[in-house]
């Protein structure tokens, strides 16, 4: 299995991403309304403390988000996103200067301010479609960028999403967005692809995308899987509360890893880190 893309990415982010093996993005949502951790970190101090916990549990990256993109959510203003995210990025880097901070935003102005504050990765759930200035910004910054698939937009994306062939369509979309990014000047070595679990997808769509993740891995870019605590896991296990979906999340991480994903965006770092250590040992035995 080709794990080279993750190694390349490690170098791109300035090689602060320790050791070989898969990378974990620890989720830090500084929003009042995220589906799982909304309202948990109401100020930069509590958010930075949470970042330290994520790092101590083994996160390679802290992914800071200032707008919920859960199904049915409304966008926030750019000013509000900036107000939520930038002080948190600064606070994390003050406490732990070596931290690789990623910012979950599709707005160029927020991305630019976060990069100026020291963030090193941009996580764009619109795959550079949300803001015409974003492609140029990440090209000029020379930073890694996550390009994620989403059908429609958060407000309405779960209203009967339909595909003829979800795996082929998501793969073709991501290939097209990677090409677009490269033609806008983004270095191919900085591109990360993400199937966008839960973004305009039914239970069957999510399962098919994880089951056939190789189709996306085969495009040759590092693949990030973001299934952590999502609704489809609760549908299967009966866990209504997002925080009770950790065991189901771990199953997605292990199977995603076996299929070649090398980055995992998770709320529960320790559980996923331990599962990956065991899975990795088995796969290399
Ligand atoms: N999922 C969420 C947000 N950002 N980014 C990537 N690259 N991939 C994902 O799957 C992804 C993402 C949604 O989860 P969460 O941040 O936990 O919740 P919310 O959007 O409600 O803040």
TrEMBL record:
Gene Ontology biological-process entries: folic acid biosynthetic process; tetrahydrofolate biosynthetic process
Pfam families, alphabetized: Pterin_bind (PF00809)
Presence of keyword Lyase: no
Pathway assigned in UniProt: Cofactor biosynthesis; tetrahydrofolate biosynthesis; 7,8-dihydrofolate from 2-amino-4-hydroxy-6-hydroxymethyl-7,8-dihydropteridine diphosphate and 4-aminobenzoate: step 1/2
EC number: 2.5.1.15
Cofactor: Mg(2+)
Gene Ontology CC, one term: cytosol
Gene Ontology molecular function terms on file: dihydropteroate synthase activity; metal ion binding
UniProt keyword annotation of Ligase present: no
Keyword annotations: Folate biosynthesis, Magnesium, Metal-binding, Transferase
Family: Belongs to the DHPS family.
Protein name as it appears in the record: Dihydropteroate synthase
Organism, as annotated: uncultured Rubrobacteraceae bacterium
Taxonomic classification: Bacteria, Bacillati, Actinomycetota, Rubrobacteria, Rubrobacterales
